[in-house]
Amino acid sequence: MERLEGMVTDIVFHNEENGYTIARLSNGDGDFTAVGCMPTLSIGETVELEGKWGRHRLYGEQFEAEKFIPVIPTSVEGIRVYLASGMVKGIGEKMANRIIEKFGVETLDVIQNTPDRLLEVEGIGRKKIEQIKKSYSEDRELRNIIIEMSPYGISPNQCLRIYKRYRSNALKLIAENPYRLAEDIRGIGFKTADNIARKMGIDMNSEDRIEQGILFVLRNALMEGHTYLPESEVEKEAMDLMNIDMERVDNCLLSLAYDQKIKLENTKEGIAVYLMNYFLAETSVCNKLVELSVFEFTKDKNIDISDKINEVEKAENIKLADNQRQAVKEAVNGGVTVITGGPGTGKTTTINTIIKIFRGMKKEVALAAPTGRAAKRMTETTGEESKTIHRLLEMGYSTDDELVFFRNEEEPIKADVIIVDEASMIDILLMNSLLSAIKPGTKLIIVGDSDQLPSVGAGNVLGDIIDSGVIKTVRLNEIFRQAEQSMIVVNAHKINKGERPVLNRKGKDFFFLNGETPQKIMDTVVGLVEKRLPEFYKVDGLRDIQILSPMRKGDVGVNNMNTVLQSCLNPPGERKAEAVFNKRTFRVGDKVMQIKNNYTKSWKTEDEKDSGEGIYNGDIGYIYYIDKNKKLIYVIFDESKIVEYSYEEMDEIEHSFCTTIHKSQGSEFPVVVIPISWAPPMLLSRNLLYTAITRAKKLVVLVGDTRYLDMMIKNNRVNARYSMLSERLGVLKEEGVII
Ligand SMILES: Nc1ncnc2c1ncn2[C@@H]1O[C@H](COP(=O)(O)OP(=O)(O)OP(=O)(O)O)[C@@H](O)[C@H]1O
Questions:
Q1: Which of 7, 19, 44, 331 is the most buried (most CB within 10 A)?
Q2: Whether 49 contacts 35, CB under 8 Å
Q3: Per the domain annotation, does 340 fall within a domain?
Q4: Record-annotated residues binding ATP (predicted)?
């Protein structure tokens, strides 16, 4: 290993995400190039590098740095460059010159050890000194973390999170127990922590390691939708993951339970292992549902609302079907009511009738849905304001950046009736937060299609509530006349029953185009969005058509589709700025999707007349402007909301010329095109196909091989999720808590 010192004269290349940097440096012996993970390197800075000389095929000799240590500048010129670089907040170029004029080579020593002397410099007061002191020490602490952690593959962004969490104790705490990173820092998992621990020489049989490994197994299970895992599965997975014996796993299971991080629950099938907050959520959802549904409504008890329904029917010129009427009656009289049904079965019509009746009774009705788009649609179809569940619960952030709801047991939602739509997307934690904020006596109406894909988060809440048979449920199953003409609706119901859809009926809205190979499928899809559909249906290839793929990988998976579709729908152009993240080129005009809920992300319209907060998982927008100097990307959502993303935030955005069917849940598009080809069996499922086609309002085009279409329709094995909600509700019924 060689050591080399030099001052950075140029940054030739810098990857924001992994810190890989190519820089030109100079020292007494001349100029040279250095490459490696040096995330904080900046021009003017002097660094000491550890590494070896290598030779690049094209660029010749270069120093391959494995470690870099910023050298505190000792020359007046070095200090000037360092201070003027903006590294220390509160000191700009002019101020740097004034300070250096005063203290010369001792400048940094003064800032660090006797900062009060800065008062001697014109323009610096007490407040400024505090700012400089804070920023100087933060900068140094953060740099130390970055330097120490980069070799383990921890990104500068994650280092920032580490610093925010542990402050100046970071390196000490990590050295004591690197596994705490997996618990405390978003984006760092057990495997990374384990890798760090290994390099630090930590005992592979340590309890910290095994406990974190077990929590990792349980968190992974959440991502597959399970609220718990049977003990035998936890044991097996933990043993495989950590290469340890069962006794150690069992001991650590007990100590985690003792520390209340997990819950071990005895069930008929054996021991169920829950992460504690999921256990609490599941039990409290169950209790709360029962509490709300057994509430004695003395005042309006069983009032006959037939007359009221008749009035609405008359006013709206409709005639409700029998089960719609029944749904309205249950909803008006009961505590908790579930209304479920496929597309076009009259859910919205039923909701609207319920709202009108409650309004007539002078009741306060609150409407909500789990996503921003679903809430917006609910507003459109009911003509009443609907909020996201998060907004209804008045979400905010605590002082340590944790998500909190200001509507809860102590401050419940002020409404007599709450109607939530698209309930299939509600996971167990969100349901728990919602129910906690509903006071007994408030009526809850849960509306959704239980045949859609279950929520992204853990649990199978809607399905479980319905299956339990404990909560009043009305299933709407009649497809109404207007809807019947739509083959999308007819076929959705056929698919749901396991029947083959009607394909290619002339003048209709549901087509199948053959494509035997992935390449042919791709060519057909490109032809459809580029030319055929825009010409024939007068739709915009980029805005009105959404390609939905079951999977990410493979030729017709989302990743490859996006590359191909970007090149035809938004090719490079002279005036289209570009920036590369995670090996993907983002370009002005690209269609992109926000992939996590960001409740505090602010947006404003171009004329700045309107502004607000919140961009949600699944929201689709277009890249509007890229400011390469400021490293900012602007995306426009809903044709007017402009949102600014720093380069570091680009992990919240991905291309969405094509998206996964999972990500399309809760959205609707005029035209949906779906490639149908080989995919891993768990993705060739009926409810995935059903969810995809029910996203389309005007037209569905399937492209591929009918063999796989048949496989999807036949495969109704809904990927089973471990969840005990239905059983828990059932037990309460057996015990007579609920009749
Ligand atoms: N009782 C009824 N008689 C006649 N038409 C009805 C009746 N109920 C609903 N419809 C009509 O059927 C169509 C679908 O109804 P609605 O929008 O209420 O269903 P939905 O279940 O909410 O559908 P989706 O889930 O697709 O939005 C609408 O055009 C509506 O006007």
A1: 331
A2: no
A3: yes
A4: 344-348
Identify the three-state secondary structure at position 700.
Answer: strand
- Residue ranges at the known binding site for ATP: 344-348
Q: How far is CA 100 from CA 109, 620, 724, in A?
A: 12, 50, 68
Outline where DSSP puts E strands in 365-413.
365-369, 386-388, 395-397, 403-405
Question: Residue 398 burial (CB < 10 Å; 0-12/13-18/19+)?
Answer: exposed
Q: Does residue 464 form part of some domain?
A: yes
Cβ(563)–Cβ(597) below 8 Å: no
Q: Is the ipTM of this complex over 0.90?
A: yes
Distance from the CA of 481 to the center of ligand 1, in angstroms?
9
In this structure, the answer to whether residues 63 and 192 fall within a common structural domain is no
Q: What tens digit of pLDDT does each residue of 381-420 get?
A: 999 999 999 999 998 877 766 788 999 999 999 999 999 9
Ligand 1 centroid–CA 558 distance in Å is 33
The verdict on 16 and 120 lying in the same domain is: yes
pTM attached to this predicted model: 0.79
Helix segments in 267-342, DSSP class H = 276-293, 306-316, 322-333
Please name the residue that has the structure tokens 């009289």. Answer: 333
Residues 565 and 623 in one domain: yes
Atom of ligand 1 nearest to the CA of 324: 1
Are residues 39 and 150 in contact, defined by beta-carbon separation less than 8 angstroms?
yes
Q: Is residue 491 part of a domain?
A: no
Task: Specify whether 263 is located in the same domain as 292.
Answer: no
Same domain, 287 and 269: no
